[in-house]
Amino acid sequence: CINEEILELIKNLQQPKYLGTNQDAYRSAHIKELVGRHFDQIFTSCEIGSVKPEPEFYQYIEDQLQLAPSQLILIDDSQSNVTAAKEKGWNAYHFTGNVAALKQFLLKNE
């Protein structure tokens, strides 16, 4: 199920957008088909070979994008994934369903 309100928020962001997800190959293909056009790149655990919250997952994305951790933002519904991203130096937000609060976080991190 796609949250249309969040998808609209993503579409309106001016900065590059990347999706990192813990999915198998089948579900990853489905996600790419549904929302791939709204992201500059999609990173999947089945392609990376590690999963969030493992540090290798985040490191892989940093290396591929050639960006410093402080230049990356993770929005995730899992607190353990958010904590791991913060430990790597990423800006991170634990999404619990409050879209207005997410918008405020994104405005502060533009």
Number of helices: 6
> Which term fits the overall shape?
globular
Main sheet, how many strands, which sense, barrel?
Answer: 2 strands, parallel
Ends distance: 27 Å
SSE arrangement, N to C: HEHEHHEHEH
Which runs of at least 5 residues are low in confidence (pLDDT < 50)?
none
Helix percent reads 40-55%
Describe the fold and architecture.
With 110 residues, this protein is of the alpha/beta class. It has 6 helices and 4 strands. It has a two-stranded parallel ribbon with strand order 1-2. The chain has a two-stranded parallel sheet with strand order 3-4.
Task: Compose a concise summary of this entry.
With 110 residues, the protein is an alpha/beta fold. The chain has helices spanning 4-12, 25-35, 45-48, 55-65, 79-87, 99-108, and strands at 18-21, 41-44, 73-76, 91-94. The strands form two sheets. The protein has a two-stranded parallel sheet. Strands 3-4 form a two-stranded parallel ribbon.
Secondary structure blueprint with pairings:
Blueprint: H1 4-12, E1 18-21, H2 25-35, E2 41-44, H3 45-48, H4 55-65, E3 73-76, H5 79-87, E4 91-94, H6 99-108
Parallel strand pairs: 1-2, 3-4
Sum up the structure in keywords.
110 residues; alpha/beta; two-stranded parallel sheet; two-stranded parallel ribbon; 6 helices; 4 strands; globular
